[in-house]
Amino acid sequence: MKKFITLALIFSAFLAQAQAPTLKAGQPAPDFKLKNVDNKEVSFASYPDAKGFIVVFTCNTCPYAKAYEQRIIDLDKKFKPQGYPVIAINPNDPEASKADTFDKMQDLAKEKKYAFPYLFDKGQIVTDQYGAKHTPHLFVVSKTAKGTVVEYTGAIDNDPEGTKDEKTKYVEDVIASLKNNQKPAITETKEIGCTVKRKAKA
What we know:
alpha+beta, two-stranded antiparallel ribbon, Peroxiredoxin, oxidoreductase activity
């Protein structure tokens, strides 16, 4: 019985991922309108002067998300003045992850003094549109004449444990290329983190 339950959980996780392929570089980046921890709705249109966005699917609970938290704060601090603000979205269903409720998101954002929005994705609609699979899972998006476009998807850097003295800073390299009107050399890496938490199907 235990083996059957384990196989069922693995199949469910596989099915959830199969239903929502991850967006790749060159594909349109869907806009959204989600509730921020300040109870206001946020979308790309909230940033009319932005050149693009650092959209990161992260959460309260995952050890990897916690390890990357300060680096996400630093990305926003560095790149928001340059036209690339961070927009954080919690992809976890609060019924499946009790510490990822909206109230607890508010508590975390206040405790850590987030200067960027931390959005609640009710029904995991935006999570599925982007195909976010783990926390953190990051997308660099640029504004173009044809609309918002994905430029990069994957990890923030190559140091999920936060132990390397020398890091390959994927996101910073991507934005440096975009600012020089160049296509990034690397457009996709493997995101490292916890799987997105979904409530069990009835």
